[in-house]
Model the fold of this input.
Amino acid sequence: MDKLIKYEHAAQYYETDMMGVIHHSNYIRWFEEARVDLLGKLGMPYRDMEDQGLIIPVLSASAEYKSMVRYGDIVYITPKLISLTPVRMTMEYTVSDKKTGDVRTVGATSHAFLNRSLRPVAIKKTHRDIYELLLEAVGKDLF
Done:
């Protein structure tokens, strides 16, 4: 698999808090942006998966803040698929400053695979192509 282009985000003014730094809740949104971007780059746009009846809700999300991101900073949000089962996946994220490479935040999300009726599905059986693409990415440095 060829190396992918990192997901880049310019910190917006509306994302800041009273101290002029990015509000902590925005990092979870950034994780989602990077995850959706990665799925598209792997050849499975989220919209296509939904059209096939597969949804991937978040079961848990966590973030550990190492240093601040301020309005105007440009960061990379690097997702990494760290585990996959037929019914779940877990991703880790690193938010780093584009200029310095300093790590600003690390985090993780876990997800279930559900059908439109919100019932768990084993994608290894129901969406084998998606399972195989994800399996190929597990644990790999894609960026």
User: Anything to note?
Assistant: The domain at 7-137 is CATH 3.10.129.10 (Thiol Ester Dehydrase; Chain A). Residues 25-41 form the longest helix (17 residues). The helical segments are 25-41, 46-51, 123-126, 128-137. The longest strand covers residues 74-84.
